[in-house]
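Limitations

Structures in this collection are predictions, not experimental determinations, and the ligand pose is part of the prediction. Treat each record accordingly. The example that follows, with magnesium ion as the small molecule, is included so readers can see exactly what is and is not provided: the inputs are given verbatim, and the output is the predicted complex.
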Amino acid sequence: MRKIKLVFLPFLALILFSSCIAERAYTENEILMDTVNAITVYSKEEYENIVPAAFDLIREKSNLVDRYSSSSEIFIVNENASSFPVEVSSDVFNLISFALDMSYETDGVFNIAIGPLVDLWKIGTDEARLPGPEEIEEALLLCDYKSIVLDEVNHTVSFLKKGMSIDLGAVAKGWIANEVVSLMKEMGCEKAIVNLGGNVYVIGEKEEGKSWTVGLQNPDLEFGGSYATVDVSDSSVVTSGAYERFFTAEDGTRYHHILDPRTGYPSSSDIQSVSIISADSALADALSTTCFILGVDAAAEICERWGVSAVLLTLDNDIIRL
Ligand code: AMP
Ligand code: MG
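Predicted complex:
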């Protein structure tokens, strides 16, 4: 089990401006997935009935995909899939299929098989370190998403190389947000804010005919300070930023947690933070990571191709809306 440094991303990554009308909000917070998760609803009944069910679902889903927990399906896949095909639940199979598709669609910039490289850098833990070039080269050989074989009929996963591992860190929160929002809506919720460590999903409208205003965290400010806002209804806003998890090496260089599979090092594009807006939070999550790595020009093409909106904060502090 790795030791993770807890970071309070919901308040680091995104904030929500509260409604100006006097309406009672009920918020529950819980630390899961190494971060603070918050759900806000607007009736006591929903707070008592829907919110606990929503947190149960977050717990259940996150336990399935946490590759550091020995009881998770992903842990079992990573331990065994190079020896024999490992059967997973249809839920997890669909998520792996989606993440593998996104890996092919982005030519491996979003890389579901990034596990060995993430384990080498250990960014976000107390053991984070700058690896040597040979170690990076070795790990990169194992970050080979094309060596993942999925069997659609039997729902199994196999690896063609020993030492490979799946990491769903760039897409899991978005996937869980989709599932939680579906459940809450099925249970009758028409207005809520689901914030999974900065991965925000707003249900419905703030008031009739009025969108929610979501603030995008300014990387240079303490949490809560935003550089821009977006107005959204019934949609997800997912942010990837270099400020979220990083470590500072002895020479003062900062290394963040989003790795470029083309180099093996933390990515170095012209973007310091990107927020993707989409009703599909898993897609927004995968695309936020991809756009962050690829930079402004590619982000414009990606947003057009997948029909999503985005707000980019460049290294020069320009704000670009796509
Ligand atoms: P996000 O904050 O959604 O951009 O996801 C970052 C997390 O995804 C990291 O902490 C890693 O676990 C994982 N990750 C890092 N680089 C990549 C990559 N190139 N493709 C897929 N997942 C990645
Ligand atoms: Mg992501």
